[in-house]
Amino acid sequence: SDLHQMLATKSVENIQFLPFLTTDVNNLSWLGYGCLKQDWTLIIVNTTGAALQTLYILAYLYYSPAKCPVLLRSLLLLAVLAAGYGYFTLLIADTGTRLARLGLFCSVFTISMYLSPLADLAKIVQSRSTRCLSFPLTVTTFLASTSWTLYGLQLHDPYITIPNVPGILTSLLRFWLFWRYPPGQDKPYRPLHA
């Protein structure tokens, strides 16, 4: 929906850049894990995800009036990825150790991504408004994290299973918030005091 909004309005107003960047890092990290493990499901899904996130980043850069900060963050992402690649391929010779450390990194990064929407929890409860939450994104997160949890359980891979459980839990919490504070109850105005 963010890409559609950027294309329709030819603007990045009210669209955050950081989620595109962090999701791209997440996809590329899991892609590396999938390549190391030779798991074609991880490879195909995360190649597609990384390609889409890169497309979103390029569209954001194109429509952004302040190109320098976007470009600097993107270059920082590339530097972090290059450093990570160097660490995991040059400094860790044993494939089993490399797989375990990369799996741990991917897991921690994924958990932090799933927990990040909770930063607005106090604001949502205080304002009694879910305006800052995306319902389609909540549904997608729930379905994706549930699918990956089941896939990880099937493979007996804790690096896939464990980090996706918080995605399920945070999605359920956001569903509850949508139920508790329905979007239709949002008031775009403040009551006047007489």
TrEMBL record:
<dbReference type="GO" id="GO:0005886">
    <property type="term" value="C:plasma membrane"/>
</dbReference>
<comment type="similarity">
    <text>Belongs to the SWEET sugar transporter family.</text>
</comment>
<keyword id="KW-0762">Sugar transport</keyword>
<keyword id="KW-0813">Transport</keyword>
<feature type="transmembrane region" description="Helical">
    <location>
        <begin position="40"/>
        <end position="63"/>
    </location>
</feature>
<keyword id="KW-0812">Transmembrane</keyword>
<feature type="transmembrane region" description="Helical">
    <location>
        <begin position="133"/>
        <end position="153"/>
    </location>
</feature>
<keyword id="KW-1003">Cell membrane</keyword>
<feature type="transmembrane region" description="Helical">
    <location>
        <begin position="159"/>
        <end position="179"/>
    </location>
</feature>
<feature type="transmembrane region" description="Helical">
    <location>
        <begin position="75"/>
        <end position="93"/>
    </location>
</feature>
<dbReference type="InterPro" id="IPR047664">
    <property type="entry name" value="SWEET"/>
</dbReference>
<dbReference type="GO" id="GO:0000139">
    <property type="term" value="C:Golgi membrane"/>
</dbReference>
<dbReference type="Pfam" id="PF03083">
    <property type="entry name" value="MtN3_slv"/>
</dbReference>
<keyword id="KW-1133">Transmembrane helix</keyword>
<feature type="transmembrane region" description="Helical">
    <location>
        <begin position="99"/>
        <end position="121"/>
    </location>
</feature>
<dbReference type="InterPro" id="IPR004316">
    <property type="entry name" value="SWEET_rpt"/>
</dbReference>
<keyword id="KW-0677">Repeat</keyword>
<protein>
    <recommendedName>
        <fullName>Sugar transporter SWEET1</fullName>
    </recommendedName>
</protein>
<dbReference type="GO" id="GO:0051119">
    <property type="term" value="F:sugar transmembrane transporter activity"/>
</dbReference>
<keyword id="KW-0333">Golgi apparatus</keyword>
<keyword id="KW-0472">Membrane</keyword>
